[in-house]
Amino acid sequence: MASVCVTPGTLSLTSLVSQNFTSLGQDIVTDASFTAVLTSLGNAPLGTVQLTGTAEQEVLGRLGATDTGSWTTELTALSLSGTVLGATSNVSLDPSNSSDGNTSITAVGNGTFQINSFFDVFVDITLDSQPPLSTTRGPIQVTAVPEPASLALFALPLLAFAGARRRQN
Fold this sequence. Notes:
Elements: E1 4-6, E2 9-21, E3 25-40, E4 45-60, E5 69-84, E6 87-93, E7 99-109, E8 112-127, E9 133-144, E10 150-154, H1 159-168
Antiparallel strand pairs: 1-3, 2-3, 2-10, 3-4, 4-5, 5-6, 5-7, 6-8, 7-8, 8-9
């Protein structure tokens, strides 16, 4: 199989699943989808990558729904899956590394808020191809805006698959 890569794509947090306030801060879970273009190493488009799942972050110290400001945050869960190159790809957080960052929350009116978060993310990536591929990558700098219907750039390291495929050939 030829070597391929995934261009930086868009992580859309499509709907709020839950938000809870604890003594530590706010826990936010959202449905998420990732869309990017699969290209050859020469940048020729080969198709679209679409992964869906959920993302969860803990905003440490944000104790109320109307609080604005900046806080330390941790991406506590990321689970995305979809078809890549005819095989199922799964992306999840690497449990041996924390994915910490910063979050700022500002009011935008009508009771809504814009949440801007930046994380250094460590992920485990699998592709159930033959032979199966699995790799851990990070830190990957991810900017996420976990407010329903917000968009953010998300660089997914499927380039690791390209290197693994290249070494197999």
